[in-house]
Specification:
It is a single chain. The chain has five helices and five strands, in the order βββαβαβααα. The chain has 174 residues and is α/β, with parallel strands linked by helices. It has a five-stranded mixed β-sheet, with helices on both faces. Strand 4, helix 2 and strand 5 form a beta-alpha-beta unit. Helix 1 runs parallel beside helix 2.
Length: 174
Amino acid sequence: PEPAVEHGLHERTGRRWSMVRILTVVDQFTRECLCLLADQSLTGGTVAQALELVVGQRGAPRSITVDNGSEFASRVMDAWAYRHGIQLDFIRPGKPVENGFIESFNGRLGDECLNVEVFFTLDDVRETLARWQEDYNRTRPHSALHDQAPACFTADWAAITMAQAAPELLETLT
């Protein structure tokens, strides 16, 4: 599979705080939620820093599907993507269906987490998102993954990939 990641932003207006923006990063193949970053605003620099952590843990994808928000269309993001050899695939303005997987994910995040919790501080939001992300990745089965949780699917995929690569590694070493 070709590595690709989808990104999106989820915005929520609340009574006790003006707005929280959430960077959502999801691997299209494994369905893992790789990042949920909540803040009152997100700049290209903030997004690039968050993605740097993801790339450090997972390696660089070939492409990232993003909307046309200023944080994604910034010079900082363009330079970051260029440095890592990552293509930024921008959806057409007003066409969220072109980024359907992340839109669905963001809807689920809203329905199951953001719309059922009461938040008093940004830290409340971050703590709740961390718990939800853990549940989403480790315990929730996905039909697209043969009813496995994303973390289990990823572990199985890594084991299969390593088993297939082992003979080639042995040939290289001898």
